[in-house]
C-alpha cells in the first residue's frame, strides 16, 4: 500500500499508552488510522510501570509491544516508526511530513506525543533517574515505602508534595536546592511534622549502580537516603500543536476539553501532552475518550455528507 496516496481518517502522533489506546478504539470502529512514533518514550528510563490494571510492574517497552501486537488484529490501523516534523492544513485536509521525507494526509489529527525531560539540573541525578529517583509516588512510592527519601522541590509544590509523600514514608528530607520559596506558615507546618528543610544548593548525588547513597549539599551537609523524588523540568513532546494554532498553557500543556478537543477544529490531544496526571493508565483512558470523540465526529460528518 502506498500510504502517501491514502487519506487517513486519523493520524496519531505518538505511540505511548494514549496513542495506542486511541488506535485500538478507532481500529475497532473501522477507521483508517496511522500511528507515527519515533520510539523515544519519556518512560524508557523506567524499569517498571505501575498502577495499570492487569499490567502492574510491566516493563514499559513490553506494554507497548503487547499493545501493538493486539492492535494488528485490526487491519485499518498502520504503524510508522518515524518522527513528524511538520503538520499543516485544516479540518478534513491535514498534511503531515516526517523526518524520513514521507508525506501523509489525514482528516483529523491526534497528538499523543507526551512530554520530554529537559536536561536534569542536579549533578548525579541522571545516573539514578528511573532506578532510585522518580517523579511520581503513585507510580513508584510503594517500592520506596518507609525508606529514607530526599524530595527535591521548592515552594508551594514542595509543601503539597511533602503532604502527599507522607502516605508512603515519614522519613524524608526536603532539599530545595536554593531558597525554599515557602511561606512562614508552610515552614511552621513542616516543622510541626518534623520535616527537615535544607535550602543549601545541591552539590551532587552519590550513587552506586543507579542506587542513590546520599545527597551532598554545597554547605557540606550530607543526606543519606535510599530514594529521591524530584520535580522534573518538562517540555512538550511536540511543538506542532502550538504551530497549528492550538492553545497551550505556560508549561506547554495543550489545552483540551473533556473529550480531548483542542482549540483548533479537527485537532485533538490526549495523554501527558494535555494533562498534569502523568500516569500510564490515565493516558490510556484519555486516549480512549479522544478516540470515541473523533469517531463520533467522523461518523456525523459522513452522515451529513451522504444524507
From TrEMBL:
TM ranges: none
Segments forming a coiled coil: none
Domain FAD/NAD(P)-binding residue range list: 8-286
Required cofactor(s): FAD
SUPFAM superfamilies xrefs: FAD/NAD(P)-binding domain (SSF51905)
Keywords, sorted A to Z: Flavoprotein, Oxidoreductase
Source superkingdom: Bacteria
Record's subunit section: Homodimer.
Protein name: FAD/NAD(P)-binding domain-containing protein
Amino acid at each position: 500500500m502506498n500510504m502517501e496516496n491514502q487519506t487517513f481518517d486519523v493520524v496519531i502522533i505518538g505511540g505511548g499508552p494514549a496513542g495506542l489506546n486511541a488506535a485500538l478504539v478507532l481500529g475497532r470502529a473501522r477507521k483508517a488510522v496511522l500511528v507515527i512514533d519515533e520510539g523515544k518514550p519519556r518512560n524508557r528510563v523506567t524499569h517498571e510501570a505501575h498502577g495499570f490494571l492487569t499490567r502492574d510492574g510491566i516493563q514499559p517497552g513490553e506494554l507497548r509491544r503487547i499493545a501493538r501486537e493486539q492492535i494488528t488484529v485490526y487491519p485499518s490501523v498502520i504503524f510508522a516508526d518515524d518522527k513528524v516534523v511538520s503538520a499543516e492544513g485544516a479540518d478534513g485536509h491535514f498534511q503531515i511530513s516526517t523526518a524520513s521525507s514521507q508525506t501523509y494526509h489525514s482528516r483529523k489529527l491526534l497528538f499523543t506525543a507526551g512530554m520530554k525531560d529537559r536536561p536534569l539540573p542536579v549533578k548525579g541525578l541522571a545516573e539514578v533517574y528511573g532506578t532510585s529517583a522518580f517523579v511520581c509516588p503513585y507510580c513508584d512510592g510503594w517500592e520506596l515505602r518507609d525508606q529514607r527519601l530526599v524530595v527535591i522541590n521548592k515552594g508551594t509544590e514542595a509543601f503539597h508534595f511533602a503532604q502527599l509523600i507522607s502516605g508512603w514514608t515519614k522519613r524524608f528530607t526536603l532539599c530545595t536546592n536554593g531558597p525554599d520559596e515557602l511561606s512562614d506558615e508552610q515552614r511552621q507546618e513542616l516543622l510541626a511534622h518534623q520535616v527537615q528543610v535544607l535550602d543549601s544548593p545541591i552539590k551532587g548525588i552519590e550513587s552506586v549502580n543507579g542506587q542513590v547513597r546520599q545527597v551532598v549539599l554545597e554547605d557540606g551537609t550530607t543526606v543519606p537516603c535510599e530514594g529521591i523524588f524530584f520535580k522534573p523540568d518538562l517540555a512538550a513532546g511536540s511543538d506542532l500543536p502550538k504551530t497549528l494554532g492550538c492553545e497551550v498553557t505556560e508549561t506547554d500543556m495543550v489545552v483540551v476539553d473533556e473529550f480531548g478537543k483542542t482549540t483548533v477544529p479537527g485537532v485533538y490531544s490526549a495523554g501527558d501532552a494535555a494533562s498534569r496526571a502523568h500516569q500510564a493508565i490515565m493516558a490510556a483512558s484519555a486516549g480512549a475518550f479522544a478516540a470515541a470523540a473523533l469517531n463520533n465526529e467522523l461518523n456525523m460528518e459522513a452522515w451529513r455528507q451522504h444524507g
